[in-house]
Write a structure and sequence with these properties.
The chain has 610 residues and is α+β, with helices and mostly antiparallel strands. Helix content is 36%, strand content 25%. The chain binds zinc ion (2 copies).
C-alpha cells in the first residue's frame, strides 16, 4: 500500500510543507512503530504503549514502563530495531470494526480511550501491521491512522536520543508516562549533521554559558524568573542599550521614563484588565487603591502623548523607553533568560496619521533589518498573526478597523521585501500582530520581537491631534520592540555567538597576561591606557603558569589576550593573541588601542585589527 501526500495532507502537522517533509514524517512514524515493537520484545510484559507522533526534529514515544529505561539501554534497543529494519517487512493497513479494535487492544487503557474518541467522532478505526498478516509474517500491530513507508528497509538512519517524563496527553492531571525521544533522517549524512547541530546547541545553551561566563544568575531567595545580571552580563546589556538609544535617536525617537507601577484604572482603560489579568502580578493595595506592576509600557506612552494637545506637525511622534515590565508566567514554563517574569523591553510607540502609518511600519521593519545585519543574523522572516476565525469574540474594536489594520499591515510587509507568512491565530485583542522570527547561527529559531499596527487603543485613550484642516483626529499607534527584551535577546545572542561575542559586545574585551611578576608594572601601565579609553580590560596576575592563564582566558572567550614578557617590557610593545589563536607580535600599545577602538566602533563581527 502506498500512503501518499495528497491523501494525508490535511492531517499533517504544520512542519510538513512538501513531499520531502512528508517522506520524513513517514520514516519517523514508522521508526516509532519499530521502536515500540523492539522494546516490547526486549522488556516483555513491562510496557504499556500509549502514543508516539513524528515531530519536526524526530519522533517520540510515550508509554507506561514498569522500570523507566535508561540511556544505557539505548544501544540494545537500537540493535534490535536495526534487525527489524533488515527483516524488510511491509507496513500493512487494515480498517477494523469497533468490536475488533476493542478486542485487539482490550488490555491497553490508552488505546481504548482513543477508540472511544474515534467512535464518538464517527471516525473509521484502522490498524497498521508490521509484516503481512495474510502471509503470517506480521510481528506487530498498532491502532494507527498512518501514514507509513511501505517497507521497513526504507529506514536508513535513526537514533535514540533521550528519556523524559510526560503526562498522558500533556495534561498534568493524568498519569505520568515515560517519553523516549528519537530521530530519523532520510540518510546517514543528514542524521550526522543533525546530531552535530544538537551537540553544538548543547554547548551553546545560554543557561550553561550564562554560568560559565558569569553573565547572569538566578537565586531561589529572590524568586523564579527574576534574573540578576552579573557585571559581565550587565556590560552586554548596557552596550546593547546604548546602541539602541543611539540608533533610535538617529531614527527620530524621543526617550521617556515611566513608572513600573500604576493604579489599576489605567489597565481598565486599556482593557488589559480583566482580559490580561492572569498574566499580571497580583495587585498591591496602597491607601485603599489597587496598584499593578506594569506588564507592558503602552498605556504609559499613550499618557505621554495625551499630556498636552498635539499638532499634526509633531507626527509621527516616536516615544521610546527601555521599560521594566513584569508578567506572571507559571513556574513550569520559565526557561533561563528566554522566558522570565521580569524583563526590560526595547519598547517604543509611534503615533502617526493614518496616511503615514504604512510608511512608518515599513521603517520599523527596516530598523529590524539594520540591527540584524550588524549582528550577523542572516536568516529571518516575519509572521503575521491574524484573528482566529473560531474565536472572533476574543477581539475588541470594530470589524472595519480590524480589516483596515490587517490590510495596512500586509501592505507594509509586502513593501518591505522581507519574506513572511500568515497564520490565522495569535493576533492581539486590539490588532493584528507581526512577529519577527530569527534564526541563530546554529539554526535555532526565535521569536525576537512583536510589532503591531493598532487602530483601537488611540480611541480607548481618546488620543487626539489637530490635523492640517484644524480638525481633531485619532492617531494610529504602532507598537514595536526590535531588540525584544534584554533577557530574551541576550539569551539569543549568547547562543547565536556561542558566547564568543564580537569585540564591541564582549564583556571583557582584553585580558592582559604578564608572564611573571617582573612584567606587572608595565602590564598595569598598558591596562590604564586601555581602560581610560573605555575598553573593558583586566589583568590576570594570578600565580598560574602561562599556559593555564591562556586556557582560562580562552574559556572565558576573551577576544584579545595581551601576553607580556621581558621582550615586550623592553620594547614597550605587545604580543596580541586573538581568540582564534592567531598571534600578532611587536604591536605598539597605542597602535593596538587605535585598531581595537576602530573594530569596536565599526561593530565588526570579526576580531581583525586593521
Ligand atoms: Zn502509528
Ligand atoms: Zn505597546
Amino acid at each position: 500500500m502506498n500512503d501518499n501526500y495528497e491523501k494525508f495532507k490535511d492531517q499533517m502537522p504544520e512542519w510538513v510543507k512538501n513531499e520531502a517533509d512528508f517522506e520524513l514524517y513517514k520514516l519517523r512514524h514508522s521508526t516509532e512503530h519499530i521502536f515500540n515493537q523492539a522494546v516490547e520484545e526486549l522488556f516483555p510484559g513491562k510496557i504499556v504503549r500509549a502514543m508516539g507522533p513524528a515531530i519536526q526534529d524526530g519522533w517520540y514515544n510515550d508509554s507506561r514502563w514498569e522500570v523507566k529505561p535508561s540511556e544505557e539501554d539505548f544501544e540494545k534497543i537500537e540493535a534490535r530495531m536495526k534487525e527489524i529494519v533488515k527483516m524488510n517487512l511491509p507496513f500493512v493497513y487494515k480498517e477494523v470494526s469497533e468490536a475488533e479494535a476493542r478486542e485487539m487492544f482490550k488490555d491497553n487503557p490508552f488505546k481504548l480511550e482513543f477508540i472511544d474518541e474515534f467512535v464518538a467522532a464517527g471516525s473509521p478505526l484502522s490498524v497498521y501491521y508490521t509484516g503481512d498478516p495474510a502471509k503470517g509474517t506480521d510481528i506487530f500491530v498498532d491502532l494507527c491512522r498512518g501514514p507509513h513507508v511501505d517497507w521497513t528497509s526504507k529506514i536508513k538512519a535513526f537514533k535514540l536520543l533521550s528519556v523524559a517524563g510526560a503526562y498522558w496527553r500533556g495534561d498534568e492531571k493524568n498519569e505520568m508516562l515515560t517519553r523516549v525521544y528519537g530521530t530519523t533522517f532520510a540518510n546517514k549524512e543528514q542524521l550526522e549533521e543533525y546530531l552535530n547541530q544538537l551537540e553544538e546547541a548543547k554547548k551553546r545553551d545560554h543557561r550553561k554559558l550564562g554560568k560559565e561566563l558569569e553573565l547572569f544568575h538566578f537565586e531561589e531567595e529572590i524568586g523564579p524568573g527574576l534574573p540578576i545580571w552579573l557585571p559581565n552580563g550587565n556590560r552586554i546589556k548596557e552596550t546593547l542599550e546604548s546602541w539602541a538609544k543611539e540608533t533610535e535617536r538617529e531614527w527620530g525617537y524621543e526617550r521617556v521614563t515611566t513608572p513600573v507601577i500604576t493604579k489599576e484604572n489605567l489597565f481598565y482603560t486599556s482593557s488589559h484588565l480583566p482580559l490580561y489579568k492572569d498574566s499580571m502580578y497580583a495587585p498591591i493595595e496602597i491607601e485603599g487603591e489597587n496598584y499593578y506592576l506594569k506588564p507592558m509600557n503602552c498605556p504609559f506612552h499613550h499618557k505621554v502623548f495625551s499630556s498636552r494637545l498635539r499638532s499634526y506637525k509633531e507626527l509621527p511622534l516616536r516615544i521610546a523607553e527601555y521599560g521594566l515590565c513584569h508578567r506572571y508566567e507559571d513556574s513550569g514554563s520559565l526557561f533561563g533568560l528566554m522566558r522570565v517574569r521580569g524583563m526590560e523591553m526595547n519598547d517604543a510607540h509611534i503615533y502617526t496619521s493614518l496616511e503615514n502609518a504604512v510608511e512608518e511600519f515599513v521603517n520599523v521593519i527596516k530598523l529590524h533589518e539594520f540591527y540584524y545585519k550588524i549582528l550577523g543574523v542572516k536568516e529571518y522572516e516575519m509572521e503575521l498573526a491574524l484573528r482566529d476565525p473560531n474565536k472572533m469574540d476574543k477581539y475588541h474594536g470594530s470589524e472595519e478597523d480590524w480589516q483596515l489594520a490587517e490590510k495596512m499591515t500586509l501592505e507594509a510587509m509586502e513593501k518591505s521585501g522581507v519574506p513572511f507568512k500568515i497564520v490565522n491565530e495569535g493576533a492581539a485583542f486590539y490588532g493584528p500582530k507581526m512577529d519577527f522570527q530569527i534564526k541563530s547561527s546554529i539554526g535555532r529559531v526565535f521569536t525576537a520581537s512583536t510589532n503591531q499596527l493598532d487602530l483601537y487603543m488611540g480611541k480607548r485613550f481618546q488620543l487626539e491631534y489637530i490635523d492640517a484642516n484644524g480638525e481633531r483626529k485619532t492617531p494610529v499607534i504602532i507598537h514595536r520592540a526590535p531588540l525584544g527584551t534584554h533577557e530574551r535577546f541576550i539569551g539569543f545572542l549568547i547562543e547565536h555567538f556561542g558566547g564568543a561575542f564580537p569585540a564591541w559586545l564582549a564583556p571583557e574585551q582584553v585580558r592582559i597576561i604578564p608572564i611573571s611578576n617582573d612584567n606587572l608594572v608595565y602590564a598595569q601601565e598598558v591596562k590604564q591606557q586601555l581602560f581610560s579609553s573605555g575598553i573593558h580590560v583586566s589583568i590576570d596576575d594570578s600565580d598560574d603558569r602561562l599556559g593555564n592563564k591562556i586556557r582560562k582566558g580562552q574559556s572565558f572567550k576573551v577576544p584579545y589576550m595581551l601576553i607580556i614578557g621581558k621582550e615586550e617590557v623592553e620594547n614597550k610593545t605587545l604580543s596580541v593573541r586573538l581568540r582564534s589563536g592567531a598571534e600578532i607580535k611587536g604591536l605598539a600599545v597605542d597602535d593596538f588601542k587605535q585598531k581595537l577602538l576602530a573594530n569596536i566602533q565599526a561593530k565588526k563581527l570579526e576580531l581583525t585589527l586593521e
